[in-house]
From TrEMBL:
<dbReference type="GO" id="GO:0016491">
    <property type="term" value="F:oxidoreductase activity"/>
</dbReference>
<dbReference type="InterPro" id="IPR026992">
    <property type="entry name" value="DIOX_N"/>
</dbReference>
<dbReference type="Pfam" id="PF03171">
    <property type="entry name" value="2OG-FeII_Oxy"/>
</dbReference>
<keyword id="KW-0479">Metal-binding</keyword>
<keyword id="KW-0408">Iron</keyword>
<dbReference type="InterPro" id="IPR050231">
    <property type="entry name" value="Iron_ascorbate_oxido_reductase"/>
</dbReference>
<comment type="similarity">
    <text>Belongs to the iron/ascorbate-dependent oxidoreductase family.</text>
</comment>
<dbReference type="InterPro" id="IPR005123">
    <property type="entry name" value="Oxoglu/Fe-dep_dioxygenase_dom"/>
</dbReference>
<dbReference type="GO" id="GO:0046872">
    <property type="term" value="F:metal ion binding"/>
</dbReference>
<keyword id="KW-0560">Oxidoreductase</keyword>
<feature type="domain" description="Fe2OG dioxygenase">
    <location>
        <begin position="173"/>
        <end position="288"/>
    </location>
</feature>
<protein>
    <submittedName>
        <fullName>Clavaminate synthase-like protein</fullName>
    </submittedName>
</protein>
<dbReference type="Pfam" id="PF14226">
    <property type="entry name" value="DIOX_N"/>
</dbReference>
<dbReference type="InterPro" id="IPR027443">
    <property type="entry name" value="IPNS-like_sf"/>
</dbReference>
<dbReference type="InterPro" id="IPR044861">
    <property type="entry name" value="IPNS-like_FE2OG_OXY"/>
</dbReference>
Amino acid sequence: MSNHPIPIVDFTPFLDKSAKQQAADQLLGSFKSAGFVYLTNFGIPEGEVQDMFDWLKRFFALPHETKMLAPHPDSGSHHRGYSYPCQEKEIQYSDSGDEFTIAPPSMKESFECGSEDNDFMPNIWLPEGVLPGFNEACLSFFWKCHEVEQNILRALALGFGLEEEWFLKYHETANSQLRLHHYPSIFSELLETNKLTRISAHTDFDTLTFLFQGEIGGLEVEDPNEPGNYVPVPPIPNSIVLNAGDFLRRWSNDTIRSTMHRVVAPPGVAAKDGLLPSRYSMPYFCAPDMSTIIDAIPGTWSADQPKKHEPVSVKEYAMKRFAANY
């Protein structure tokens, strides 16, 4: 990736069915080489994305006491509601799930929501009337992201030579999550001395993540060809940054990369009086049904290329990772 930036894939040929297999092959190829891809023409108009950013900024502009009316539970196993700055920390587990590293606290605040039909992890909203229209905007955008998720999963299945609905049967319950992020203005010295982070280096443990970046950058990904070297992923207008998670890597028998990434001080942005500007982003985490057992998919293993991982329960693995982050 040092000589080749993260690929840009136009999703139009898949959505309009003019060259579905070609777009699917490009998407899968990017995941195999880099674990990341910029996806353009993904199915949500630019204006609707901007509307959601407007709601995000209105929410985070509320007083702390107001945002705490929808508090994220102290236990990370219920990943909904508002998390205040430094409440969450990043945990990076080994494949076995027995070893992990803990990073400094993340200097960000978040709001998380999902499907209203998710009885396992119900939403935690502000009381009615506090920010009229916010709940409805979040839910509407969540379902738009869900539709994008389903199309991406269809494309990945085609890329693997499977029938289009193969991954969808493991994502029937809309177990995914929309997160709204605000990285408050912070003294650059705190990041430079590693006393705080914006988000430390980690992999996602879902199937895949797509990120709507604001105008301020800061996302970096590890170069697969140079471990420990991170390269910037600057915002590209009208695109999402799409990355594979640990579950998809395991499903693919490690033919897909789940790449380490982090959020740092944005390159080329000068601190004013030592303060870095605020940053906003919206990641959407595509998660399998809790009942799913992740095992290598057909065509990714053989007698000559055996399975690299034991089957793993989504519920057990996800709950362990969720709980450790709080």
